[in-house]
Amino acid sequence: MIRNGNPTSPIPPQVAGHSTTRAGHAVADEENVMKCSVAIVLVALLLLPFAGGVQAQEGQWLRQPYRFTVAADGGFGMPLGPDVFNELWNSALPFSAAIGYVVIPYIEVRGWVTWSLWTISENPAKAAIDVQGVQGISGGSITTLLYGGSVKVIPFPNSQVMPFVEVGGGAYRATASDLELEDVLTNEMEDANGPVLLTSGGLDYGINDSWNVYAKFNYYMSFDENFAPGDLVRGPSDPPTEGGSLQFSSIVLGLTLKI
Q: pLDDT tens-digit profile of 17-32?
């Protein structure tokens, strides 16, 4: 059994090819960040007139003020970066929980936590490792845990339909189960952690004085280069891979209790 390959072995052509395109992927990642940020702002601006048009008369919709919120959601997560994470891991089902304090009706400060499990795509992973005669692989799943704080801006807090934007930051931790190819190879990924940025936009819909439902788009990006999922898909003679920034997005549906 070979464990984690040999760091002194030459880089195979396919690995070298990935290295030559790393700069291009970095540029693409920056473009993705810009596109996501612009999309969130544009969606919020487009929804403002709609929200203003459905505002209830004062005192008829939001009859009881509230100071605290408790929210939970789940949905669909898409791996974005580093490039190998985007190519070889499947979409996840992220789950989040948050508590909030309403400073003024337009501003809410929140604390949140998000958990996701990313499973590896078996056939692309075997092709990337390029070991002949292996029938199947096991392991290779990545778990991400993110937590932090944010500020939620609600332009029309007394509407039944309330668009919002949210910006915050915190920290993440990523761990992985060992990837095993029968008795041929076992790869590990070192745990990664660091600071993370959150940008979000979405819609709240008031059911009654106590409950809201919401739909939200989230974009997460870490500021470090410690996340190295490529270590899980190294060949027997490949050296350790370089880390990158953890990036993923999610679209979620959730429920909020207003207290």
A: 443 344 444 444 555 5
Residue of 166, 175, 176 lying closest to 197 (CA atoms) = 166
Amino acid at 255: L
Q: What is the pLDDT of residues 150-209, one digit of tens each?
A: 999 999 998 899 999 999 999 999 999 999 987 778 899 999 999 999 999 999 999 998
CA distance 105 to 221: 29
CA–chain centroid gap for 11, Å, is: 31
DSSP lists the bridge partners of residue 257 as: 70, 211
Instruction: Mean pLDDT check: name the lowest of 31-45, 68-82, 147-161.
Output: 31-45
Q: Is-contact 177 138, C-beta < 8 A? A: no
Q: Which residues contact 133 (CB under 8 A, 6 or more apart)?
A: none
Residues contacting residue 216 through CB under 8 Å, at least 6 positions apart: 73, 166, 200, 201, 202, 203, 251, 252, 254
Taken in order of first residue, the domains within the chain and their CATH numbers are 2-56+66-258 (2.40.160.20)
Is residue 223 a contact partner of residue 245, using CB atoms and an 8 Å limit? Answer: yes
